[in-house]
Amino acid sequence: MEGWLPIVIMIACGVGLGVVGTALSQLVGPRSPTPEKGAPYECGVPPVGDARERQSVKFYLVAMIFLLFDIEVAFLYPWAMALRDLGWVGFFQILVFFGLLLTGYIYVWRKGVLDWGSQEGL
Questions:
Q1: Residue 42 bridge partners (DSSP)
Q2: Residue 29 falls in which region: left (phi positive, over 0), alpha (psi -120 to 50) or beta
Q3: pLDDT digits (tens, 9 = 90+) for 16-36
Q4: Which residues contact 108 (CB under 8 A, 6 or more apart)?
Q5: DSSP assigned state of 42
């Protein structure tokens, strides 16, 4: 049971911090509800119409592209930790990796996936 004590303490601290924060916000926080504050808000789009209306495909494309380019950080951290052991081979491998990412970014940029606004006012 000795090995579990630090884990139990950490879980208790986390739960306690959440409970204390919630209780303090209820006790000390301002109370001025308005209809605007109570209205649902989702992704910058005003909640008008049916919740089942179709979203633009660009919304999902940008989300997938964000995930693809964001995942690179998951590969960059272990590489940085092992850089001394990898030497020049590891350095050139990361250059190839970033070259592929840059190629993908240029492709996406040229296809216009990142252009959200209309081109009429330009």
A1: 45
A2: beta
A3: 999 999 999 999 988 888 887
A4: 65, 114
A5: B
